[in-house]
């Protein structure tokens, strides 16, 4: 155990890095990063037709004061939005393989989100993967084998109505992570963590940049969400917290 900036970090404290947001494989587009270094977080479109989510990208106002739909092709803009994670109540939910990893998180762990961003105008910032925000874990709610799952899900849908994931029909298998609102944040300026490299057949992919390899102790491709990367070594976790300016 050691103390850093007044925070007690024990040997169990860890961070998990997870890719989120709209991407080329799902919707053929990335969230925009602007010439002033700010960005717009655009979530995935909703692929589950068994959902009670009503909002589309036309209904969501971004940090720039614009509807998210203006950044998207028309065929994507009219789709329902899958707002997850959301940074109002700081919640993130998933089931299946991702839920297995979410179950490894505990109180005070970090869930760090990164996303693919593409220049909206100018070329000051490259198309790359960037850290866009984080949760300091307050609670991990596991619906697996719940004895009263219908009431629990309805309560979650009411309490955390900004999040689209509990609104899906398969929410009974969900794990929902809730962040501490005092220690969770959508960043104002994203942090680049990737650098494009070539694979054996000459195709470009997003790998951890050399700078971040040294700083965070992770390496290789971070193109996909699964498996997520964990950071638990003391100095690397300290570096991550400093990078996030997490007090």
Folded structure, characterized:
This protein is α+β, with helices and mostly antiparallel strands. It has one domain. 16% of the residues lie in helices and 30% in strands. The chain contains five helices and 14 strands. It has helices at residues 74-77, 97-102, 149-159, 210-216, 234-244; strands spanning 2-4, 7-9, 15-19, 31-33, 44-45, 81-82, 91-94, 110-119, 128-142, 175-179, 185-192, 194-198, 204-208, 229-231.
Essential attributes:
5 helices; alpha+beta; single chain; two-stranded antiparallel ribbon; 247 residues
Sheet with the most strands, sense and barrel status:
8 strands, mixed
Number of H/I helices: 5
Series of secondary-structure elements, N-terminal to C-terminal: EEEEEHEEHEEHEEEEHEH
Beta-strand proportion: 25-35%
What distance separates the N and C termini?
18 Å
Integer average pLDDT: 91
Helix content: 10-25%
Question: How would the global form be characterised?
Answer: globular
Give the low-pLDDT segments. 1-11
How many structural units, i.e. domains?
A: 1
**Structural class assignment:** alpha+beta
